[in-house]
Amino acid sequence: MSLRDVLILLLVVNGWAFNVIAMKFGLMELPPLFMLTLRFALVAAILLPFHRLTRRQLPGMMLLAFTFGFVHFGLMVIGMQTADAGTTAVFIQMGTPIAMLLAAFWLKERLSYRQIAGVCVAFIGVIILAGSPALAHWQGMMWLLISACGWACSTVFIKRLPPIAPLAMTGWLSLFAIPLVGISSLLTEQHQFALLMQAGWRGWLGVIYSAFGSSIFAYSLWYGLLKRYPASQILPWSLLSPALALLMGVAILHESLDHSKVIGTLLIVGGILLAVIRMHLFKRGVLIS
Question: What is the per-residue DSSP string for 198-257?
Fold first, then answer.
């Protein structure tokens, strides 16, 4: 891998890590589902003029709008309200071992003993991390784990869907997710537009950075690298993101760093790394938060 591409990878994983920080800032001033609706609207407005959708691709995008747009993203921002940035980033990574288990069950993909061991280590890390004071409410952990399941289901579904360009997929599933997330916001949140008018730089950072920095910019760079290198060579780099988010949460948001969080994070990241080395589950597509 060239030095240029290594630097691009570092830029991407740092961009994803900071996305969690930006969204935590946004949640200080905006309701979670309303903030997510604005993000999806921005992404759709920017990408859809450049990408078309065929009739054959339409059912798959509507399915991903639910599993990825609503379940993954929607429950992630809800869980973030009671979990810190580092814990959020680490829990979301559990989508990888869950996707492996789903692929073994639905797609009959065989798991090696090394991969099974990696999955077990990651789940032990979840148990340890759950005991961290950073998780003040068990509901936050539950929403984040269900969010990771939404990511896992979406990843497995992609293997059965008609091919579609990554940014086209991002734009169209964002469009179809707007009614799901928007109606949920109207039913469960209050004073959305008043809060938007009063929002300062924190609220707008959460919306704009998550749309441009994560969904479009980092996403485009990541898929460019996946076209040039084997997935097994690129995927392990994504595991730097939760560790960086953990450090950014401590440095920027002054979050705590206790033993449970450190040990749980190391086990989850290490277990996933053990499981994904030379694994070919994601060769057709990878969904990124």
Answer: H--HHHHHHHHIIIIIIIIIIHHHHHHHHHHS-HHHHGGGGGHHHHHHHHHHHHHS----
